[in-house]
Amino acid sequence: MSRSLVLALVSVAVAGDIFAQEPTPEKRGGWFTRMLHPFQSNPVPNYKDARLRGLLLELKLSPEPVKLSEVRQLQVSLSLKNVAKRAVVLDFPSEQRFEIYLRNSTEAILTIWSDNHAFEDKPGTVLINPSEHVDYPATIATRDLSPNKVFICEVFFPQYPELRLRQKFMTAP
What we know:
The protein is mainly beta. It has helices spanning 2-19, 31-36, and strands at residues 55-62, 66-67, 73-82, 88-92, 99-103, 109-112, 124-128, 133-141, 150-157, 160-172.
């Protein structure tokens, strides 16, 4: 009887170690979950470039709405998160990592962020480990914006054109 009790305790301990794994950041549901939630989208885009898979790009603008009488610079917060199980390595030919365009509603470019910045042609590498992120805070001038209109902030990485995000925002007088 004591042998069967010891065997049962050992098997429970081993099973506990097997099932005590950390949850993965990217949870993909099985067929049953997809049947119950058919319109739920996967937050991580599936990039054509395999090196970029698992990266999640987030963009936050502040303040919203942009009061042009009070704000001369729009605060842009760009975050690049790695939700994959492997590290992602990004190589850049210069010190510039990203670019910001302010566009009007007809898609015309009004302001380019890099016009006011100098970058050296010094190559660099960014390594993003699993479950980590890199934040890029920036500001861009609002001098070409007009009140009570909708504009588009487009952020992208010139070296990796698939890493692109756009967000609309409204201006106020």
